[in-house]
Amino acid sequence: MPAKNEDLHGNVPDKAEVALLLIDVINDLEFDSGEQLFKHALPAAEKLAALKRRAKRAGVPVIYVNDNFGRWQSDFNKLLKHCLEEDVRGKPVAELLRPDEDDYFVLKPKHSGFFSTTLDTLLDYLQVKILILTGLTGDICVLFTANDAYMRDFHLVIPSDCVASADADENRHALEQMRRVLKADTRPSAELDFDELKRPADDEEPQPQPQSQQFAEQD
Known about the structure:
219 residues; 7 helices
């Protein structure tokens, strides 16, 4: 691997214990269940926008992991322009969560953010140990990405109010599965302490909340 350049990523750190992933949030939502999903995605996006601002203040890198909408000719800027400038259902979500110039992005062809993408390489380069997973949808792409992250020994944080699905019950079930099986911390975003998360993993690893912890419900 070539020597690292301190200025390679501008204000983005070349090393970070924690990374925030935004999964499929740049999305036109122009599909059969899109209207139902939008009702849950918009309030989740509002929470996620606040979480992203806190993450950036804490020096936590932000990575957009986005579907390529089945088009191998797609690029992220075209997807963003489509969602921001055209009259699509997902425009308000994209407006809330539009990326900054120093954010990373990865395009994925299938459900998991790790399948046939450069995400592994990027996380290895940054030396990330803890992933905060957010976005759409909790019961599909977030769940598949979480499964693959768990098998790679990442510690998972999945804020319950920053994940949305078309069906609220399915979203709650997916969060419960990720908490129970994947040992994810599913506390609401306001309860996350970035200083605590950024402590060296050998010093103190984030602990999943007790069984009795209640998930934030979708409206």
